[in-house]
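To illustrate the input format used throughout this study, we show a single complete record. The first block contains the structure-token representation of the backbone; no residue identities are included at this stage. The design step must infer an amino acid for every position from geometry alone.
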């Protein structure tokens, strides 16, 4: 169990317990699960993550799908292996996926003062530790990745004002079809947005605006790469199943054999 982290004089918050063994098993399961349901997970912009220091870290993303929280768990182990990932989820939704509570996901009651206080207290407890990171879908509800302008809930800005020095990394996410039967998971890390103690004196709306601009820029960049359908614009984190299967692929395999060609199950005749 994690030790209590002080929030303010007379107030403390205990972070949810995370099982390292369960987290490792679940990461392996997620790789197989995504491979069954997607053509690939492709990532861009991750080169800049090498510059991220050891201070408080938030990865904040758009929210196109219910896949997002488990995608974050996979990305966290890949790109931030030295940090324990924590993130909020609607308390009612978390009841349906209770295993996530043992993986760093904590429930928050939507549209309530109690829920807002719990988010701020738990979020600050996460950011006060050097070995953690907070992952959050800052739009607060499912939103199409093409919707502009990008509008974020103010909760993250209030949290940043509390903590002061924070690095916030925008993360753009899309689930889109290219040439294969299954869709692609496309991910784009944006330029880090750095906050300092001087930002605690600024209005929350100013902090929100900086966060929105950072995420919108990352989403615009990912949109352009998604539209190009060029896998070379990404690093491939995971490859899933290819081909249509059934009689169609059996016929293609037979034709390739008759011609003496190597059978390629991908629809586009090549895959990377």
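Output of the design step:
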């Amino acid at each position: 169990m994690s030790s209590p982290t002080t929030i303010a004089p007379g107030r403390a918050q205990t972070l949810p317990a995370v099982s390292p063994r369960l987290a490792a098993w679940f990461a392996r399961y997620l790789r197989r699960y995504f491979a069954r349901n997607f053509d690939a997970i492709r990532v861009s912009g991750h080169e800049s993550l090498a510059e991220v220091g050891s201070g408080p870290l938030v990865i904040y993303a758009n929210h196109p799908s219910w896949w997002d929280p488990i995608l974050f768990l996979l990305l966290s182990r890949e790109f931030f292996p030295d940090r324990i990932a924590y993130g909020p989820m609607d308390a009612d939704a978390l009841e349906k996926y209770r295993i996530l509570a043992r993986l760093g996901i904590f429930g928050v009651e939507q549209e309530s003062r109690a829920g807002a206080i719990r988010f701020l207290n738990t979020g600050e407890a996460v950011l006060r530790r050097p070995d953690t990171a907070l992952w959050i879908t800052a739009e607060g509800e499912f939103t199409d990745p093409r919707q502009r302008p990008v509008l974020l809930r103010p909760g993250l800005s209030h949290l940043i004002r509390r903590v002061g020095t924070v690095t916030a990394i925008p993360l753009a996410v899309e689930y889109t079809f290219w040439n294969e039967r299954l869709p692609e998971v496309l991910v784009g890390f944006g330029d880090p947005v750095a906050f300092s103690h001087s930002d605690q004196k600024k209005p929350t709306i100013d902090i929100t605006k900086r966060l929105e601009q950072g995420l919108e820029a990352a989403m615009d960049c990912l949109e352009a790469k998604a539209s190009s359908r060029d896998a070379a614009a990404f690093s491939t984190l995971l490859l899933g199943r290819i081909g249509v299967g059934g009689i169609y692929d059996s016929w293609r395999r037979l034709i390739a054999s008759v011609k003496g060609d190597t059978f390629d199950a991908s629809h586009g005749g090549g895959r990377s």
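Structural context for interpreting the output: Residues 85 and 133 are 5 Å apart (CA to CA). The radius of gyration is 20 Å.
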